[in-house]
Amino acid sequence: MFTLGEAASGAAMAGAMAPVILQVRPVAAKAEIAFTKIAKGTLTAHGKTSQPSAALLDELEKVGKVSFEVQVDIKDEEGDTVVEMRIDWHLSKRS
Question: Quick one: which of 7, 66, 82, 93 is 20 to 30 A from 31 by CA?
């Protein structure tokens, strides 16, 4: 389940940074996971950045780097949350 959550986190990060994703160096610096319920059946994960994409892109442009978190919920086929994750991303412009 950790791998599913990390993948969803990366997808959320890449989506938020899509206009510049090939010009940055992303690092998943820290991850926390909490198992909230026994999973049943097929799992789906949804990640969301802590700030809007425009704010992240603006900070990257001004400072050359940006840090933010992505919250991930993993749900089972009944729609119950079985895992909650938080991943801290650090991105810097490639030189």
Answer: 93
